[in-house]
Design a protein that fits this description.
alpha+beta, seven-stranded antiparallel sheet, 7 strands
Length: about 120
Amino acid sequence: MKKFELYFKEIHIGSLTETNWDMRSAGNIIYHYDFYSEDAQNSLLAALIRHSIKADIYWEEFGEDENYHKMCEEENQFLEIINTPDWYIVNEQHKKIKILCPLFHDNNQIVWQEDYLNIL
């Protein structure tokens, strides 16, 4: 299993353990960033992580319906942070790898994909 450190800009979000790889990588995260804190270092980042987890829980419990689509529309408020090239992971050899905005799931699960358009 590969291990990585996840960052947004200079904010250390957490430690990743890759448990599955296909076109996207998936695994577990141990958070170093307290996204539930009222004093979170970046409130938009914290809100995005909370929203991503909430959307995942909703999808798993209720499936696709009108309310889920409304929740997806709420993601428009996060487009600036979703579309930024400031997401990256650092591997065990300390190599920085650009990634697309990861998907945060319940139970400390995460999915990420390398950003092939913004290679370092």
